[in-house]
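dude i think i finally got it to work??
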Amino acid sequence: MPEEEFVPTSAEDYPAAEDQKLTLPSGAKVIVRAPSAFKLFSDGAIPDGVMKTIMDVKAGKPVSIQRQMQALDVMIAAAFVKPRVSVSAKKGCLPIAKLRDEDRIAVIEALGLSL
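look at this
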């Protein structure tokens, strides 16, 4: 049986992250998009310590639950397109501390977020 020719995916057909409309368990309606840790880090939107936590988890190194939760908060906040969510207090942004646990979990599950 002949081998199938390898044809790279075109830019138009690349499965890029797209906005998703969600109704969260709290009833809030939001728009989210799967964030890229690498893009966030290169843009200066992820602190060095959080990126280290993400890389340590990926490498299978032991990381405290507290550090993992801090890193996950950064990724969850970055996922929100509308309303904007921030880990630290910023004008015009919802502080992540005000998000309900069930809403965070819904975003994690909808986007398949992990460290």
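The chain has four helices and five strands.
im so relieved honestly
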